[in-house]
Amino acid sequence: MRSALRSMMRWIQDIRHPSPGKLMESLDGELSASEEIKLRTHITRCERCRLRLEQLQSGLEYFATTVETVNQEFSVEQGLTELTLRLQQGSVSQQQFDNEPKATRALYDRLLAELSIYIGRRTAIRLLDRCDHDRLQREGFSRAVEPVVTAFLGKQAGTAVLANVLRIWDRTQQVPS
Amino acid sequence: MPLFTGPSSSATRIILTVTLVHLVIGVFVHGHWLATGDQHALRMYFDYEGAIVFLFLSVAQLLFASLAYKEFSAAQPLGSAWFYIVAASLCALIGTILTKLLTVDSAINPINYVVSGSTQSLRSLLGSIGTVLGGPVYLILLGTGLYFAIRVYRQLGLTAKPKPVDFLLVGGALLYTLVVIIGVVRTIKSHPEGVTAEHALTWPGDYLLSLLLLEAIVLRRAAVEMGNGFVSKVWSAFVFGIFLTSFCSLINWVTAYGFIPWTYTSFVWYLWYPASAAFALAPAIQWEATRTARLRLSKRIEELELPA
To answer: Which of B64, B155, B158, B233 to mutate to test the interface with A (most CBs of A within 10 A)?
Structure first.
């Protein structure tokens, strides 16, 4: 009976879709070995989750590439000269312009995944929409999200969620815009 | 709706496993009773194992509701909600001890060892107190708590417009209220002498349950609109508990009228356990949400190599 129960529990866990938070945890390497195996088993069978994981993966890859660029040795003087030159020319590189929505998208996806764990995907989308997700503003974001997370989780846990989300924001802010 | 989200789902796992194992055993016991007519196993199941499971679930409900309440300050609106839920959980625990442990003639009833002579009148008195505390008083407090929760949803602009299915549920709630009213009136008219205090004490609870059902419908819609997260799971668990309790109560009334023979509705005896588990799960999920938030933040702090 024990093994039948175990296989039933396994079956129940297997048919469930992992949450966006779980997928993020997997990409961050934060899942335990058994959880990782369960998630991978599910991914092999579920087209929807595989697609979602790929989207998150591509966002992260983009993030990693841009951070690498920023972390290269950088001369301030050279940078200022270049900036002045660009301002004089009155134009911004088209490539940088194209990158901006992509960077915002990566930030948006990560914030959405983190917030979805607590307040659900739909509410997270609503809150991110309230602060104009095309050009996410940190101040507006905190104003929109803080009352909701602290109202439902309490002051301390709400603050922990917000701090965690803002940490994600900080990491993503290294993306040039 | 997945319940095992986040790194700390041990509490919900334990509650679910205990309930599931108890129900599986119940299936075998029920099958044995139907096949042989032997009531011994059935009595053992409900008077001993069932009492312990109810006790475990009530303790879990009170424990996790208290932990959830601690997270809120008095000024926070949801703090008031959790205050009433803690009070309701305390009543549920006392009610469980009185009705499932001290009223039953079993070997685990301490009254049998402490009080000498006949304990029938004492048990009856304790049973009545337990019925009131675990019934109407519990439902009033829980209903007040849920009312505050709905207010928070409204204040944050997270309530949603009702959909056709909600009107269907409201219709069901009204039907349930009608069944209860007709049931009470018919019982009083046909057998006024047969109405016992214990029976009559459950009636206010049945009326209050119909009010709670309306609250549950509003909460359900709000939780569904939130999407799958810890917060929506908390209130969904309460809603599930209320729906299941109402269903069990409705079937009890229908059986009492004689519309359906009790042998067909005996499965309801077992549904009180998942209903009770749902009320314990709700605060357990809330506690897990706060624990997950702290764990995830502490991981980030470790990454930064800052003092926690």
So the answer is: B158
